[in-house]
Amino acid sequence: MAQKKQYERPIIKPLNTGLMNKFGTKTEYAPVKMIDGAYVKDLIKEYGSPLFVLSERKIRENIRNAKRAFETRYPKVQFAWSYKTNYLNAVCNIFHQEGSWGEVVSIFEYKKAIKNGVPPEKILFNGPDKTDDDLTIAINNNSCIHIDHLDELYRVIELAGELHKKPRVAIRVNMDTGIYPMWDRFGFNYENGQAWDAINKIIASGKLDLVGLHAHIGTFMLSAKAYGVAASKLADLALSVKRMFGIKLTYIDLGGGFASKNTLKGSFQIGADVTPEISDYAEEISTALLNAGFPTEDLPYLYLETGRALVDDAGFLLGTVISNKRLSDGRRATIMDFGVNILFTSFWYDHKISPAQDFSHHTEESVLYGPLCMNIDVVRENVTLPPLMAGDQVVVHYVGAYNITQSMQFISTRPAVVLVDMKGTPHVIKRKETIEDVELGEKIPDYLEKFEL
Ligand SMILES: *Cc1c(COP(=O)(O)O)cnc(C)c1O
């Protein structure tokens, strides 16, 4: 006979954000003194503080894991590195060495990919802002243009005529995947027929080579299921294209947006506990595609433009405590030498922060401020940390995605970025910015050259 489950008295507890809850607040129990064999102290001594550090080992591990997760479940998989997530050339090239193509959202990124040596036909050109000049370059290069809106579609048709080329295109499709608010500002909507309409227009023109369908349903998507829905809807469109026009699409591109291990602000549990594994996303997507009804020999390629989930946890920001003070309400405040100017993602994540030296086990709730002279420069509104002294060092985790590409040059120059290679040897992949870098594009009109005070 089945054992009766033991009764557990229910507990009702109000949850106050920022205060202790049933699960307690997470505290770091061990200092982080090393990154892949390189000492934090030595790195700061050599390259200054603050300092971004990227782990080559982690990046390679992440992309290999992701490839394995998808390739074991689906026969035709191609990753394309999302340049905007982190477009330091050294980082892009690690991904290219691992077989990733390039995914770009502007001509600036497109040119970076070309300079890095990505064959142009292996660049996926996304984004709503492609000028005629940009499109001309992409068409002449035979890159894949992912069309975002009707105006762009008409421009590509016109340019195809002028250039006597048949551009390879896909359309970006947005759709209801059960996640709200829906990202419907990019691409053509599935449910209201816009996507089908765009497909009809492309085929009726006779001037474009429709090769794929693209979606990027959102970012930091904690639901793997949503990708299954997106894959089914794109598969449905692809099958309709085959049925109506006899055209077999080469690929279905499910974009990026897989969550990293970061903790979203206001989240009850820490990110590492709630983020789906890459294999969860892979399972949903491959199951949807395999069950969609394609004959096996006609299965489309699955393209993925995963960004943050492959690089966030490979990035660390090292920093130093400038000072401590008490706020008027008695709370401890710690001022760091890095702020939201270089840690842009602190606007939406509660970053995990570890002291980089031994510490006592006494902890205190603190506010972590950056060094900028502005009120919004808060790195953590509420974090339980051992008391840190001026000069102590910290390691901020999961900062490899978007911080370097979105950093602001404000009040001071930006820090160096170091890549720790597979053997634990650091390499500067971007030196610290200088005043000359910042002033490079400036010009002073003659009449403003001189003044007397
Ligand atoms: C930003 C972006 C990505 C990468 O998103 P992540 O959240 O970093 O995975 C992929 N595709 C497109 C079209 C994007 O705009």
General description of the model:
The protein is α/β, with parallel strands linked by helices. The chain has two domains: 34-53 and 313-433, Beta Barrel (Lyase, Ornithine Decarboxylase, Chain A, domain 1), CATH 2.40.37; 56-312, TIM Barrel. Helix content is 28%, strand content 21%. The protein is built from 13 helices and 20 strands. The strands form three sheets. Strands 3, 13, 14, 15, 16, 17, 18, 19 and 20 form a nine-stranded mixed β-sheet that branches. An eight-stranded parallel barrel has the order 4-5-6-7-8-10-11-12, surrounded by seven helices. Helix 2 (56-71) runs parallel beside helix 10 (278-290), helix 5 (132-140) packs across helix 6 (150-163) and helix 8 (225-245) runs parallel beside helix 10. The chain starts with 33 loop residues before the first strand and ends in a 14-residue tail after the last helix. Residues 82, 84-85, 103, 105, 126, 216, 219, 255-258, 305-309, 401 line the site of pyridoxal-5'-phosphate.
Question: Could you say which structural class the secondary elements and strand pairing correspond to?
Answer: alpha/beta
Overall pLDDT, averaged? 93
Number of strand segments:
20
Ligand list: pyridoxal-5'-phosphate
Number of helices: 13
Please bin the fraction of helical residues: 25-40%
Give me the Rg, rounded. 25 Å
Supply the CATH class of the largest domain: Alpha Beta
What is the CATH topology of the largest domain? Answer: TIM Barrel
CATH homolog superfamily of the largest domain: Alanine racemase
Largest sheet at a glance? 9 strands, mixed
Strand content: 15-25%
Distance between the termini: 95 Å
Uncertain segments of ≥5 residues (pLDDT<50)? 19-24
CATH architecture of the largest domain: Alpha-Beta Barrel
Number of domains: 2
Shape: globular
